[in-house]
Amino acid sequence: MRKIFIKLLWTVFVLIFIGGGFIFWAISEGKIGYMPPLEDLQNPINRFATQVYSADGKLMGTWNINKENRICVDYSELPKSLVQALIATEDERFYEHSGIDFIALGRAVVKRGIMGQTSAGGGSTITQQLAKQLYSAKASNVTERLMQKPIEWVIAVKLERNYTKDEIIALYLNYFDFLHNAVGIKTASNTYFRKDPRNLTVTESAMLVGLCKNPSYFNPVRHPERCLERRNVVLSQMNKAGYISKSEYEKYSAEPLGLNFHVSDHKDGIATYFREFLRRYMTMKQPIRSDYASWNYPKYVQDSINWETDPLCGWCNKNKNKDGQPYNIYTDGLKVYTTIDSRMQNYAELAVDEHLVKFLQPEFNRENRHKKTAPFSGNLTSAQVNRILTRSVYQSDRYRSMKEAGIKESDIRKAFDTPVEMSIFTYHGEIDTTMTPLDSIRYYKSFLRCGFMSMSPVDGSVKAYIGGPDFVHFNYDMCTEGRRQVGSTIKPFLYSLAMENGMSPCDLAPNVQQTYVVAGRNWTPRNASHSRYGQMVPLKWGLAQSNNWISAYIMSKLSPQAFVDLLHKYGINNPEIHPSMALCLGPCDISVAEMVSAYTTFANHGIRCAPLFVTRIEDNEGNIIATFQPRMNEVISNDGASKMLYMLRGVINGGTGGRIRFKYNIHCDMGGKTGTTNNNSDAWFMGLTPELVSGVWVGGDDRDIHFDTMRMGQGATMALPIWAYYMKKVFSDKSLPYSDKAKFELPDDYNPCSADADSTNVDDEFDIEEVFE
Questions:
Q1: How big, in percent rounded to 5, are the helix, strand and coil portions of the chain?
Q2: Would you call 99 helix, strand, or coil by DSSP?
Q3: Residue 185 to residue 172: CA distance in whole angstroms
Q4: Is 200 left (phi over 0), alpha (psi -120 to 50) or beta?
Q5: Which end of the chain is less crowded, N or C, counting CB atoms within 10 A of the terminal residue's CB?
Q6: Tens-place pLDDT, residues 337-394
Q7: pTM to 2 decimal places
Q8: What is the DSSP string of 354-366?
Q9: SUPFAM superfamilies per the record (predicted)?
């Protein structure tokens, strides 16, 4: 009987062994459950955020989808304490097994399964945990979880065959979700301690490893006491494993958590407007006319031109990854190296803060304090203001969502007039208040907006880019997306057409008001200043003083259509720019980026540089998969460009840009042009040095939001100081390759006129800039 029983036991054992072997073979072959293909096992983490770098090597930010804000780091970048904490806590025999720790598994079966000791620990190795994270869906019950275990064991063994132990540690830490959008150890280190992983201390490493047990339960933000206790358990395990001494354990366990917490977000980092522009630009699909509203035809034209001429535009959809799919900037782990210089970007942001935020905005608020139509112009009636606000209501997300929900129009308007609790933006931080949604629209319109771009005239590399004063609350990009009337900043283009048609800076023109016949109607341009009225004045004086009558005179001698054609050569592609006499005063809408690119022509011997935003792109293995070169076209002759530099210098040395010299004490070789449109709605300044061309626009969200006085509303007051503050900071930074001693490449004592008898010295504090109708 005893022999029969023993034989039966052996039979059962052999059958179990054979059956188990068959099951594991079937799992390995994918006949039972899910077995990832070999290529997935060789590259198990394919959801990496794309990293965006500045030209000086700074990580500017990432592009990620949902919470997959994962940035891969190599094992060599992990501190020893982090690896030791993980092994001591999660898998003390990690370096001794091949994916399955049978000792730990047996202990778990006996103590947890048979004896019911829940504190006895689990049997899963780090490799098994990685397999679970990578390939197992969340189990809904115990039976389902037990069915997943054998599959994870097989995957763990295969991972061990494909990776070294160090690589498995790196994979585990790169993949784990540490909560609060902190996916992967690099993002987690930054989220909880604002550090790179390599700089983590022993206690910080222990805290992060402690989260691996259950990040929600040991959440250091919501449950700091639990987290501290768990961290100390990890430290105890490190002591037990011999990684730290008893005295070190006592010392470290007495330390606080030391959090420096912030949630990682795509809005973090520098150049947020630029990164958002670049994200949209690279992922753009080929423009189709039906996808654009009728009023957005200029955008369709611009996008179509960019798609055909710029390899970066729509790059993700023009190129395929190794799987034959369009590149996905959220999951393909690309590295995008931009032309932005983090130092210069910082100086641009500081300049905007110094002038727009700290000076212009308080002045604007003061002017509006007792104005019934505020923040709109006092020249408007209440009925006109109400019409503007009603239009803004219809354009709001709140209105559209209520309309889609089927709410009646009367109830929607009532909701917009009903006070509700809300948080609103101020430059001193968000505050809680109660106001109607309609009043909140009016409130946000009271903030002035701006656009700024700085680029090299030699290769087009964009060094600084600002689309507004605060990306989180005013995310409409006024650098590339928004277009506003350019006023007198268009005049250098007109003057360059004159130079190309045989005129000279010292040619004389009548400084008188004249009436011209345009399309059968009389047109009489106005000019705010009557200085030297009735005299014959040189063209260079007309540009320096931004004289409208001289510009109109030049336009009358040239072809408006030729002027439009030249504007297109300058890279200004708005199809709604129509040939007319009035075009000489800048009533057309152009973006800051287009204007800055156009002005590179003057500093680059008549050759325009298109903006260069990115130099190269690498894949997640460090292979260079794309490079980008400057794009240029000849606009005017070298002689014409030299004549324009001569005149643009005059704008600064004795014209409407004179305060650059006497107020801001910038004495570099430079040219520039101010611009102000009707009613001070748009203020501009374009400045060029031999090494940088930069442009600034300042204005309101609507054209009817502006200063009502020329003293505050002109370009020399609103826009020029931002350029001045920026350039002073750039010149002061000796680590940058820009000098206030640089000279334009012109012959010594260059003078395109045979004689220069005219002085154009003007006290700009009392000079009133141009207006046009």
A1: 45, 10, 40
A2: coil
A3: 9
A4: beta
A5: N
A6: 999 999 999 999 999 999 999 999 999 999 999 899 999 999 999 999 999 999 999 9
A7: 0.80
A8: IIIIIIIHHHHHH
A9: beta-lactamase/transpeptidase-like, Lysozyme-like
Helix (H) or strand (E) holding 596: helix 592-603
509: enclosing H helix or E strand: strand 508-510
Query: How far is residue 580's CA from residue 590's CA, in Å, rounded to a whole number?
Result: 17
Which tokens sit at 57? 């090597």
Q: What is the DSSP letter of 138?
A: P
Alpha-carbon distances of 106 from 103, 109, 120, 709, 724, rounded to whole Å = 5, 5, 11, 84, 73
For 74, phi then psi, to 5°, come to: -80, 160
**CA distance readout (Å), 406 to 214, 402, 403, 560, 703:** 43, 7, 5, 50, 33
Q: Collapsing DSSP states into helix, strand and coil, what is residue 420?
A: strand
d(CA 661, CA 663): 6
Tokens of 94: 């990690």
Residue 523 to residues 519, 545, 549, 551, 583, Cα–Cα distance (Å): 9, 21, 12, 13, 12
Q: How far apart are CA 460 and CA 454, in angstroms?
A: 9
The torsion defined by the Cα of 392, 395, 399 and 405, in degrees rounded to 10, comes to 170
Strands 516-518 and 508-510 come out as unpaired
Q: What are the tokens at 312?
A: 């970066």
* Amino acid 138: pLDDT: 53
* 303: CB partners within 8 A, 6+ apart: 284, 287, 313
Amino acid at 103: I
pLDDT score of 575: 92
Number of H helices, E strands in the chain: 30, 20
Q: Which residues face 537 on adjacent strands?
A: 509
The continuous run of DSSP H or E covering 4 comes out as helix 2-28
- Mean pLDDT for 660-675 is 96
Q: Report residue 413 as tokens.
A: 């308007």
Predicted confidence at residue 142, as pLDDT, reads 47
Where are any strands of DSSP class E within 579-635?
A: 589-590, 607-609, 614-618, 624-627, 632-634
Nearest-10 crossing angle of helices 80-90, 165-175: 90
Place of tokens 């397999």: 131
Across 588-692, where does the E strand assignment appear?
589-590, 607-609, 614-618, 624-627, 632-634, 671-676, 682-688
Burial tier of 361 (Cβ tally within 10 Å: 0-12, 13-18, 19+) = middle
Nearest 5°: CA angle at 299, between 297 and 303? 120
**pLDDT at 110 > cutoff 50:** no
Q: Are 598 and 570 in contact (CB under 8 A)?
A: yes
User: Exposure of 293 by Cβ count < 10 A (0-12 exposed, 13-18 middle, 19+ buried)?
Assistant: exposed
Distance CA 86, CA 212 (A): 9
Closest to 501 (Cα-Cα) out of 590, 565, 594, 577: 565
CA distances from 112 to 101, 142, 294, 537, 721 (A): 16, 14, 69, 98, 72
Cα 390 to chain centroid distance, Å, stands at: 31
Class of domain 458-618+638-766 (CATH, top level): alpha beta
Torsion of CA 157, 159, 161, 163, to 10 degrees: -150
CB of 172 closer than 8 Å to CB of 50: no
Q: Over 60: is that where the pLDDT of 112 sits?
A: no
C-alpha to C-alpha distance for 15 and 19, rounded to whole angstroms: 6
Contacting residues for 402 by C-beta, under 8 A, at least 6 apart: 412, 415
| Backbone phi, psi, residue 555, to 5° | -60, -35
